[in-house]
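Subgroup meeting minutes
Present: P.N., E.W., G.H.
Scribe: E.W.

1. P.N. recapped why we're keeping a running log of single-chain structure predictions: easier to compare across weeks, and new members can see raw inputs and outputs side by side.
2. G.H. added today's entry (461 aa).
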Amino acid sequence: MPSFSRRALMKLSLLAASPLVVPAIASGGPALSSKTVLVIGAGISGLAAARMLHTAGYRVTVIEGRDRVGGRIWTNRSWKEVPVDLGASWIHGVDGNPVAALSRQFGIETVVYDVENPTSNQVYDANGRALGSQESEQLAQLYEQASKLLAQKVQGAASQLSAQEAMQQVLAGLGGTPAQKATVLELFSRQMEDGLAADPQDIAAWGLNEGSAFGGHEVVFPNGYGQLVDRLAAGLDIRLKHRVTRIQHGVSGVRVHTTEGELAGDIAIVTLPLGVLKEGGVEFSPALPVAKRGAIERLGMGVYNKAVFLFPEVFWGEAAVISQLNTDKGLWANWYPLNHYAKKPVLCALHGGTPARLLEGMSNQEIQDDAMAHLRQIFGSSIPLPTGLHVTRWHADPFARGSYSFPQVGARPTDRRDLASPASATLLFAGEATHPDYSGTVHGALLSGWREARRVLGEPV
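Output recorded in log:
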């Protein structure tokens, strides 16, 4: 069956990714400049920029609205001996990946958790019956055939053509039964929800060929992704609980207005998530350039949520991914057993697009009841109830308003570069949405932070 991992599903056609040079992280040296840099946001992109400039001897202040660092990297440690990553989880491909290199530099442990190997996945139908090998193979062949044709079809596609329309057109010209085609279309929807955190009717078809990826194993952090941001944040001047409301910028510098007062500097690097920029709660004076405002409007902010269950025992076997077809409203289609590395009976369901938004409208009890009903279809009525539950609601989060960006219907291939371009000599922009090759990823956010720090340093970007 097709893979469900983010790395495999984010792109249909991947450009070759080259190894990238990772700067050494050290303590700050003697001041190289009298300029003060304000970094807005203590996610991975903001911390990466701040750390590089701090190491180079610049005066840097990081302004963060939350009461913690990390942004959309968030390790919850409320379960004893079970750190749970409620934001980013995987390093998607370690070969040449700067996040993997940075983790090695910090000496942070990672373990392999490859989820795109179809031999380690198990697929069930709507009634909880495991699909036979012949049935799975027929679907996999049709899906692979459709995907190859789709990758060709979307090259240079019009901005208004959606991924769903493109796939429907491809399937119309293929063999297979109507039921098989309907299943392939459903799998494609789950693919888009997982990879781009959006529904296929909202995704621009051309965007399926956007970007690059790294090869090699996928790995996770047994002790949490948060270790990485904690190391980057160490020793920096970070102002938590300072929600930014207004940013003034001009030739004389910048002034950032927050709920806790004003801060002045010579340059600001804005790393606010695209969802926050789209909401418009931060005022820019003067207004942002027309091209940047257009990019903010056209690009989409996807929603990707997790429901993580702690059980008394493992009852789900050895599969790396457990998938079910034709689930109600797309909920509970993909389960990821975390016991492979957490050494505890933890089961995580991932949802993107409409299913993720539906999850946000449910209470934790409703979520548990609905999840258990689906799990009992597969594993029987005698399975135990969970002893713990974590649920994310990233769209409701005022400091995120979503999970990661995607190429929305109507978006242009130039939008990410317009979003990344400086608004002025004193106002710069970073974040995953600004990276043309690695959007939607931690490594894209990290690289964008380094890019803007190099811009401040006067280095090529």
